[in-house]
Amino acid sequence: MSFSQATASPFWFPISVLLSALLVARPRWWPVLVASTLPIRLFSEVSAGLPVTFLVETFAIDSVGVVLTAATLRRYLDHPLRLDTVRDYIHISDAASVTLRCLKRLARRGPGPMVTKIVASGRSASLAEIIGIFADIAPHHPRLITARTGHQQPSKLKFRSTVYPDILPSSPTPLPAGIRSVFLDQVAMLQQGRLPPPADPQPRA
Questions:
Q1: In 81-196, which residue ranges form alpha helices assigned H by DSSP?
Q2: pTM (2 decimals)?
Q3: What is the spatial distance between Cα 183 and Cα 166, in angstroms, rounded to a whole number?
Q4: For residue 195, which phi and psi values (nearest 5 degrees)?
Q5: Would you call 54 exposed, middle or buried from its count of C-beta atoms within 10 A (0-12, 13-18, 19+)?
Q6: Does residue 132 carry a pLDDT above 70?
Q7: Strands annotated E in the chain
């Protein structure tokens, strides 16, 4: 691709690329991303012969505009869950084990202030990883149903408890094994009629 002064354009292509980068990057990296477009402004073919002061001024104006646009979009648009969304998953048996050990410690301690304990695996996994595990376990490709949310959700959600940090799952269930056990249990309950059949997300004519 080459730039030219032969025709005028209301859009500066690097700005659209920069806007896309700002929307997926964390705000702390925005100054670096914005600064990375300055050499394109100064040394591209379309900038030849133009005063440096003019180029710097247009760079500043465009940078402010794209940063404000990115901030507005991130603030007011819905934030759908993406495949790189990270969450913490813990098997029910591990959660029960940690809960029982905490209750025993509280019983030995006796009456005292309220304690909040976060029960989590401490290992984060992305939705893409979860889908991949399901694809390996299920006989058919997993059916994905997505929907936009009415509120913002963090893309990275990790848990680490600072209360009773020594109480952790003694033998944590690996994520693939935990998903497999839950999947097989759900299939058994479905075959026994203890679960309703999955609803069809496609509207029927």
A1: 92-109, 127-137, 175-191
A2: 0.51
A3: 30
A4: -130, 140
A5: exposed
A6: yes
A7: 86-88, 124-126
CA angle 55, 60, 66 (to 5 degrees): 120
Contact indicator for 173, 126 with CB cutoff of 8 Å: no
Domain shared by 99 and 187, yes or no: yes
Total domains present in the chain: 2
Enclosing domain of residue 38: 13-76
Within-domain flag for 7: no
**Whether 42 contacts 52, CB under 8 Å:** yes
Location of structure tokens 């003019």:
54
Per-residue pLDDT tens for 113-125? 888 888 888 888 8
pLDDT for position 204: 43
Alpha-carbon separation of residue 150 from 86, 94, 157, 181, 205 (angstroms): 19, 32, 18, 32, 28
Statement: residue 7 has pLDDT above 50? no
Tokens of 42: 């100064």
Q: How far apart are the first and last CA of the chain?
A: 48
